């Protein structure tokens, strides 16, 4: 027998197992996959693979178990491509795995065993089927040990027990030739209580079997959280603490041998398979420290990043800076409100909502990144709708916000201002903000007085100079002033801004207060409950939903928050009738060039992309604070049937998800009479300032209620970061500033492709595969 199939065979006549292996090898590769193959084939006149053909292939990811590579091979086969041609193209492509798939041997394993999770007491069946030149023999192993009396294609254990959990593999012999199957992991769950589900069927949807339980521990004790789901293939797990994925928390059981105070928080686990995901309940883990003194009754942070200015240079770093600080502060148990691109009224109303969460004993933190200036010792944050030139009446005075925070009797007030502090000569007002003398104020300025703050030139999304160094220190268990001192030292060693930008710290803090301090329950349970309700208003996501259509197809809608005012909608097909030849779903009311994209990055979702499910359509809705009514959109399902000559048929469903995230707080409303504006005595109010001519508020444009979101991936070339935009003051003549290069190593890449082996495979299995096969090379029956 030849070591490869006949080169003259049309690829349309290849056997299905061969086609599937080739397609799997091409689908999972990013640089040597089907797209690159299409480019190579596109240069051949006889095959004529056009850009429209490639787009049609790419849409296959939206179908249940769809394969772009299979569509490409089908087109090539219809145009006369032979196996020899395909082999040559794959060699040029450099995809050796796909080349090997076209080669045959005396022994082939056609059905591989699949990893699975099941309940103790149920029946376990693993299958491995092979064909060869002569009869084949089977032998199953559990790790390095033969499984007694298991020499058939099916390994059956009935009933299965906890001791049967582990890794299994099958060796298949045909004469002098032998092959090993892929490893299969068997996870056996010991379920003592029912969650209202039947676990008899392991195919299809995941079924949650074990929920984690809340725990109260002392410092130094061991934490063990357990969850579990049954299904085939075996589910994947990712534990989260306070909404942030836990590094290496990818096992069914989360174990921390010796807990510390900073392990306190709310935990839940994301459980996923190749086609769906679910969440466990969120549980509290409380860590007590008999020696702890002090602490906060709560910790609240407001993070604002302004980048898309109407009348001033666009910025880029605030989006990345706010996102990174949000994740870090959540790890410290802060309640975080993170907002992008706010107008003056929206900023003032956001501050008002932030103040509602503050009371005696609370740690309050405000971070702002954007344009700004400083006059007479008062710092001003510039909204995205500020006129040119702007004055204090168009901006927010930081010191006036501090005065309101002092009235709340907070225990710690931290201001991190990532903006320029140049003098604004267009503003001759002298604010009169009288602050109380308190020993709990910390200011961290990204730059010195009368100086600029910079973001670094980069083609990707990276941090500004201040946050580049701040995020490396923010989790340190040190007094906040000590943390900022170390950040200042780090910034001072940065060659790109040395002598140009230096962190300035101002503090009246007398006690040792750290952002890592634990949260001690306050005396008033009603107050704590009210805080939680107020907090939940701005952070409630719509629940995932399944849509059933009359044609028999089922679509799942999921939702995620990139920021408190940015919503991500992802759509994928979970069920498609067999008589359907094509099935695609998208949100009807948005421009498909801007939304309904195949990858998160194409729609501007760069920061959240790694935590979103793959093979969906993604839509990013920003500026939710402008939403005045409930959010309504239409989901369109387009299908074709061979019986109807593949003419497209459409079904639609209208979806109402209410007011998601920050939209519930109505930040677009008119400013309150007790707004933070009133504490900063200005010669003019925003509505009467001679320099301020309010433009109509840009409300969300709704087609059937759906906002046409901004695309933050389309930003202007970088300017001085956060520079004072007034030409008479800002000065941009120094070319050194304009060419600051990004030294930060973080980079953003596209969503990962399909894994090189079935979804249930892990590093444990790969390592076990190598070690075990090496030890058995000579152990043929």
Could you describe the 3D structure shown?
By secondary structure, the chain is of the alpha+beta class. It has 15 helices and 38 strands. Strands 2, 5, 6, 8, 9 and 10 form a 6-stranded mixed beta sheet that branches. Strand 30 (545-548) and strand 31 form a beta hairpin. Helix 3 crosses helix 4. The protein is globular and about 95 Å long. The protein starts with 15 loop residues before the first helix and ends in a 5-residue tail after the last helix. Residues 677-766 and 776-781 have low confidence and may be disordered. InterPro entries: Caspase-like_dom_sf (IPR029030), Caspase-related_regulators (IPR052039), DEATH-like_dom_sf (IPR011029), Ig-like_dom (IPR007110), Ig-like_dom_sf (IPR036179), Ig-like_fold (IPR013783), Ig_sub (IPR003599), Ig_sub2 (IPR003598). GO terms for molecular function: cysteine-type endopeptidase activity.
Outline:
This protein is an alpha+beta fold and 781 residues long. Strands 2, 5, 6, 8, 9 and 10 form a 6-stranded mixed β-sheet that branches.
Gross morphology: globular
Mean pLDDT, all residues = 78
Radius of gyration, in angstroms, nearest whole number: 30 Å
- Rounded to the nearest angstrom, the distance between the terminal CA atoms is 24 Å
Main beta-sheet strand count, sense and barrel state: 6 strands, mixed
What structural class do the secondary elements suggest? Answer: alpha+beta
| Strand content bin | 25-35%
Number of helical regions: 15
Low-confidence stretches: 677-766, 776-781
Oligomer: single chain
Specify the helix fraction band. 10-25%
How many beta-strand elements? 38
């Amino acid at each position: 027998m030849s070591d490869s199939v006949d080169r003259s065979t049309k690829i349309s006549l290849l056997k299905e197992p061969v086609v599937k292996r080739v397609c799997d090898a091409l689908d999972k590769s990013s640089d040597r996959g089907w797209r690159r193959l299409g480019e190579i084939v596109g240069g051949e006149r006889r095959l004529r693979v056009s850009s429209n053909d490639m787009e049609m292939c790419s849409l296959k990811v939206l179908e249940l178990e769809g394969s772009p590579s299979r569509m490409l091979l089908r087109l090539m086969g219809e145009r006369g491509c032979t196996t020899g041609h395909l082999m040559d193209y794959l060699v040029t492509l450099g995809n050796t795995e796909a080349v090997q798939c076209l080669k045959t041997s005396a022994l082939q394993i056609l059905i591989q065993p699949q990893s699975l999770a099941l309940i103790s007491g149920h029946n376990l069946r693993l299958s491995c089927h092979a064909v060869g030149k002569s009869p084949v023999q089977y032998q199953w192993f559990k790790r390095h040990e033969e499984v007694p009396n298991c020499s058939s294609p099916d390994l059956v254990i009935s009933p299965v027990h906890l001791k049967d959990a582990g890794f299994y593999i099958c060796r298949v012999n045909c004469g002098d030739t032998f092959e090993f199957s892929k490893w299969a992991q068997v996870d056996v769950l010991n379920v003592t209580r029912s969650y209202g589900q039947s676990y008899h069927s392991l195919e299809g949807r995941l079924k949650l079997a074990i929920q984690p339980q809340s725990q109260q521990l002392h410092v130094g004790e061991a934490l063990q959280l357990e969850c579990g789901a049954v299904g085939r293939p075996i589910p994947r797990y990712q534990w989260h603490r306070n909404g942030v994925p836990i590094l290496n928390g990818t096992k069914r059981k989360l174990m921390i041998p010796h807990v510390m105070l900073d392990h306190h928080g709310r935990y839940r686990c994301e459980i996923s398979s190749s086609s769906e995901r679910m969440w466990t309940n969120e549980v509290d883990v409380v860590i007590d420290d008999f020696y702890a003194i002090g602490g906060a009754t709560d910790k609240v942070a407001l993070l604002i990043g302004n980048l898309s200015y109407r009348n001033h240079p666009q910025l880029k770093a605030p989006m990345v800076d706010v996102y990174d600080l949000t994740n870090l502060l959540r790890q410290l148990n802060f309640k975080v409100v993170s907002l992008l691109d706010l107008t003056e009224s929206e900023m003032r109303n956001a501050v008002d909502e932030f103040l509602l969460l503050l009371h005696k004993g609370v740690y309050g933190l405000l971070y702002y990144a954007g344009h700004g200036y400083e006059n007479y010792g008062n710092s001003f944050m510039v909204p995205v709708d500020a006129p040119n030139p702007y004055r204090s009446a168009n901006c927010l005075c930081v010191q006036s916000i501090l005065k309101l925070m002092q009235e709340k009797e907070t225990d710690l007030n931290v201001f991190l201002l990532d903006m320029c502090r140049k003098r604004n000569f267009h503003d001759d007002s002298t604010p009169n903000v009288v602050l109380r003398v308190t020993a709990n104020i910390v200011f961290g300025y990204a730059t010195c007085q009368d100086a600029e703050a910079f973001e670094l030139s980069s083609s990707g999304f990276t941090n500004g100079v201040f946050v580049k160094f701040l995020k490396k220190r923010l989790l340190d268990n040190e007094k906040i002033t000590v943390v900022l001192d170390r950040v200042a030292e780090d910034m001072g060693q940065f060659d790109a801004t040395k002598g140009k930008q230096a962190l300035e710290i101002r503090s009246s803090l007398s006690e040792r207060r750290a952002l890592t301090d634990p949260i001690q329950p306050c005396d008033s349970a009603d107050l704590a409950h009210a805080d939680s309700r107020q907090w939940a208003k701005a952070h409630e996501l719509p629940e995932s939903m399944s849509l059933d259509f009359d044609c028999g197809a089922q679509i799942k809608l999921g939702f995620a928050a990139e920021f408190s005012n940015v919503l991500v909608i992802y759509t994928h097909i979970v069920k498609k009738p067999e008589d359907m030849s094509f099935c695609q779903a998208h949100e009807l009311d948005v421009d498909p060039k801007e939304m309904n994209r195949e990858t998160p990055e194409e729609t501007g979702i760069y920061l959240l992309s790694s935590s979103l499910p793959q093979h969906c359509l993604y839509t990013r809705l920003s500026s939710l604070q402008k939403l005045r009514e409930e959010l309504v959109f239409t989901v369109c399902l387009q299908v074709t049937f061979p019986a109807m000559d593949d003419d497209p048929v459409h079904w639609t469903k209208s979806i109402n998800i209410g007011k998601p995230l920050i939209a519930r707080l109505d930040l677009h409303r008119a400013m309150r009479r007790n707004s933070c504006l009133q504490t900063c005595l200005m010669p003019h109010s925003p509505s009467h300032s001679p320099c301020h001519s309010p433009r109509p508020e840009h409300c969300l444009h709704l087609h059937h209620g759906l906002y046409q979101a901004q695309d933050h991936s389309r930003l202007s070339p970088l300017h001085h970061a956060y520079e004072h935009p007034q030409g008479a003051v800002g000065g941009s003549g120094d070319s050194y500033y304009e060419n600051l290069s990004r030294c930060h190593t973080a980079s953003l890449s596209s969503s990962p492709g399909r894994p090189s082996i079935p979804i249930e495979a892990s590093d444990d299995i790969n390592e076990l595969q190598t070690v075990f096969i090496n030890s058995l090379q000579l152990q043929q029956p």
